[in-house]
Amino acid sequence: MRLVRVGIANVNTTVGAVKDNATRAIALSKRAAEDGVTVLVYPEQLLAGYSPEDLVQWRAFVAAQWVELERFAEATKDDGVVSAVGLTVARGAHVYNSAALVHGGKIWGVVPKEKLPTYNVFYEARTLANGVPGLLDEVHGVPFGDLVFELDFGTIALEVCEDIWSPDGPMRRRSYAGAELVLNLSASPFRLGVVETRREMIATRAGDNLVTVVYSNLVGANDGLVFDGGGYVAQNGRLVVDAKRFREGLTATTIDLDRTTRARTENTTWRHDQMAFEASSAAVATVEVDVPTTRREALRYPAPKNQSFFLPAFAKPGEEPTPRERFFEDILDALALGIGDYYEKTGAFKTIGVALSGGRDSLLCLWLARRYIDTRYASESKEARDARVKTTLRAFFMPSRHSSEGTRRAAEEAAKELGVPFAIVPIDEAIAPEIAAVETMLQPGETVNAITRQNVQARLRGERMWNWSNSAAGLFLQTSNMSEKAVGYTTIGGDMEGALSVIANVPKTVVNAILDYLYETTQSEGIRLTLEKPASAELADNQEDERDLMPFPVLDACFSLYAGDKMAPKEVVVALVSIFPEHPPAQLEAWTMKFARLFSQSIYKWVQTPLCLHVGNLDLDRERALQLPVVQKGEWH
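RESULT FIELD:
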């Protein structure tokens, strides 16, 4: 047998913090050495932080990463660990997203990423060049290109993130070139449902190519992207390790590489394909790493958890979360991490504030802010975390005459339960002077309409939150959800204001479901009081959001079919008739046409929202997701 200990290093990097990122990686290398790790895989763009975007056009930024790579090599030279490190590398006029192999104080080679995504939140092909099969060159005197590395325990290959998502990626030819261990350095953002897809895809690639894949994912948030970390070890199609997500740290396991050799010997299809490839394709270059790796005599054979090679390790009842629990806990963890890393990494804020309306959206944002504190300082006592909440979080209730006693009680109770300082700051006295000022700006025949009277209230609240933010160095959380944002049921300068838009990519039906889940698990009185009342902006008497718009399940279905599946409105109606048989077809058609009209007319609004956290595959973010012209007509409908 050939026992090798492989490690997954999850690092919470910050874009541009090349020194700090390298220092974090060095610390993990020391831990890996103590654990007897042979090979350690770091995330994509470890040194740069992900996503560096146009920063890669500054050659000084790229050069600084090589300096830190050399520092990493020197600092880890006695660890005995073979490390795969992600960074940006320049070669002539081109810049590459790359992986470097480091061992024994030396950089042995650099492998550029081949598949550059330019979809959804990714724009890599805009600034980066891609590697190609058979490429062989040098950067800084180090081999660069389509490489595999031969070490004293076997042959390994490096690849970067998207390379593994294509069945025709470099893994195939590098496995045919002898690679038994494929190290994938990834920065795959969290999206709802992506975990299962990611796990299955990695196991499939390992099975297709008869290799052991070690996959390490970035953890932490940068701008609106949230990375859930974790990683996998999959050998010949069998999942060996599923690393914990949403935490920085090290996960390691021991594997027997002879399992891969035996599988290749037995599998005639793989052998015939390999021989055909070898005869017809350009050879992948091999780099011989002649520095011995860490001693492996002490490694023990990886025994199955239940001492059986034929029975899976069944979980006991209640030992693992249900799919429903995983769904809600994942999205709560992702959004809380997004808030916390934005708050900490920017370095601009000392406090976090929420305009707590007594409604569902702002309540969820306050719970997420508290969850950030509890997760970030989980090692501290509850008393210590409560003290941090009191010094960090703030909640403000700014009622007008349209605000109900029920929402005031809900807001006050929620803040009390979460231990957040709470202030009531009425806005009624400021409304009339603002209306009067607007009237002086109008021409004969023009009047302050009902919508303006509503929006004045929202804008007064937004202005006050910004003034608080300036005074208290506060991170002002914007609390509008995706459903209302999609149809413009928001106020520019009002509830669209803030420094970070927390749930702007979370549909209202999901907001409601999350609060239902939190109530089930916590029995929070603040949540109960909030859910007791129909959703309302409370900017006019007896206002209800669904009465102004349409039922939120219908609205979210329209959004998914129209903006996600790119259906024409007539096709959306046909789908809705099947989904919502309780509503008359004529009503569904009216709602669909209303949605399509409001959606296209509201693009000018939602392109002005603050930076948004991304948690789904369908986002309203013109810079990163759904790119639509602001000026357009719906005649094609």
